[in-house]
Amino acid sequence: MIDRNSLSNGSTIHRQNASFAREVIAKSKASAAAIFLYDKSQASPVNFLYETGIPASITALYTNGVYRDDPMLQYSTSPERDCHRFTGTNYCQRLEPNLEPYQEHNDRYWHALGRAGFRETATSLKAVSRDIYLVVGLLLAESRSRKGAHLCVENAMAAVDNWLEACHHAIVDAAVRQCFFPPRQPQLKTDLPAEADRVTDREWQVIAELMAGCSNKQISAKLGVAEHTVENHLKNIYKKFAVRSRTSLIAKITSTP
Fold this sequence. Notes:
With about 260 residues, the protein is an alpha+beta fold.
């Protein structure tokens, strides 16, 4: 599984998404924008990477089920279409003729988005793999629609393409590095402090699991002891090395290769 933090919360990626969103919103005249992953193979297939101008209640509703009624998403990722690249606009109740089979879905979709004050949406997606898609969503507020405004998707297509491409590269990089180039674990120093001589064999087992990144619960399961026993071992270990936390302990007895 790809670590979402590496794609959404990392400061560089976050700034990149914010910059693309500003450019896309300015060129498309949208009120809000988002980019998310859609994995058809998952029970909960939607994972927002970045959004701006969209109420948290709407992203939650979409993630928890409204995506099933998004006609653009369902049409473009259906087995019959299986698009590698798609862009479409949804003007509230007016669907294109080829989307008429999705009218009932569309009614439910706009029941949710209309309550949040949106009138138009645009969807642009790019296939990452057979089942996974990157999706940029643009929304226009009803207040601006009443003044005659519409989404100008064609004006923003180059910026949308750049946004999708940049996120595609970030996802591939993160997945490959996480799966095939895991971080190297720290190794014990060759010149351990004198306190190491007082550490018992069992305590060294606990230390080894700490170095592997295991929690107290995981250590208790691996060593076949109660969790409070692990906690007692840690107290003794901390006391022997004169530290107060596992982070301090690891820093004191290991070196990064």
